[in-house]
Amino acid sequence: MDTRSYTDFSIVSAKYITKYTGVWLPQNVTEERQRKISATYTAGALLYGIYLHVVDIYNSWGDATRCMYLTMNMMCIGMSTIKMLILNFNRAKLTDAFFYAERHFWHCKYTPEERLIFAVSVKYCTRYAIFAIAFLHLSLSGYVVTPIVENLGRNKSDRVLPFKMWVDWPLSETPYFELMFTFQVISAYVIGISYISPEMFLCVFNLHVMGQFRILQYRILNFWNVESKEMNAIMYTDHCYTALKKCVQHHQLIIEFCMKLEQIYTMTIFVHVAILSLLMGLDCYEIIVADTSRSMLLTFVFHVIGSLIHLCFLTYTCHFMIEESTNITTTVYSGLWCTLPMNKVGRSIRSDMKFIMIRSLKPCCLTAGGFFPVSLETFTALLSSTFSYFTLMRESMMRTEGE
After folding, report:
1. How far apart (Å, rounded) are the C-alpha atoms in residues 147 and 298?
2. Helix, strand, coil distribution of the chain in percent, nearest 5
3. Are 84 and 21 in contact (CB under 8 A)?
4. pTM, whole model, 2 decimals?
5. Are 7 and 123 contacting, i.e. CB atoms less than 8 angstroms apart?
6. Which tens digit of pLDDT belongs to each residue from 321-336?
7. What is the DSSP string of 71-123?
8. Which of 16, 32, 169, 283 could disulfide-link to 26, CB 3.0 to 4.6 Å?
């Protein structure tokens, strides 16, 4: 087994983001100092964002569109804060899961065919990391583009910031405006990174679990194919039994890793799913029904697109885990077990295969707080609930105007 640290673009990106937000478990005193600094400025950015929006809601009370916009932003910040608290509480488990995958999955001696399967998982992880980072910037760009558009044609004394500050300071004057603008943009990006930080490693781990289940299926299907003139039926049965035991051990390792992921991420998934459907419903309401400015409309469009893609990636990778874990049942049954003699070893193989199939009927999955498994059905259900929230708000608005 290779003891070097495994890395690729997705692993580097996920580690950087978790270290940047102060979640990663430090390995020495220097890393502990860096982690405390990262956790401090992440907490400061989150608290600063909540403070700005609470004050702005208080001073903007009566402007329904403005208050709705601020409430949605504060819900995103609150969701990020809760997820970061949960992940910080489980950061030792997250680090343990990382080294577990590195020890048992990433440095195994694979055959050329298995390395191709592993390479497919790495390719999916790389594409996910690129899309996640790209759409993070797409979602946050609305908060940067909006004030730039609104400042076009304005005097320097009448410029606006990305987030309004109710203080008696000369913030529209140079250089205070540029400094505060930069500070607010950096804070927004820190909050955005903390928003996607819990799911970065989760989706990467899910895709590697998918690859491990495919490698296991390949091993189960191919250990029967042994061509040797010197191997009789008894020797062939012993060979199959030894190979099957190795497959069982591999299956147990994958199941244990899935249980580790469930312990780490079940509550963050629940918080994300519970709040996001309401947020997307409010986004759709502001885009379609509410009378919002063109620049603010741009912010809502960017946010709903980013939220949809983020949720799609999360549920799709979890669906891979469910699908590939249940495929083990069909794979085991497709073997050449029926050609084995009915001796002691042959009966043991058949008995063990039954247990593998029974265990595979219960798919490995991640749940939202233990209430329901997360899959593509979760994505469609959330879209349905989002449409329900939107319809309810629109009918309520029409009823109010009719009165």
Report:
1. 11
2. 80, 0, 20
3. yes
4. 0.84
5. no
6. 888 888 888 888 887 7
7. HHHHHHHHHHHHHHHHHHHTHHHHHHHHHHHHHHTTT----HHHHHHHHHHHH
8. 32
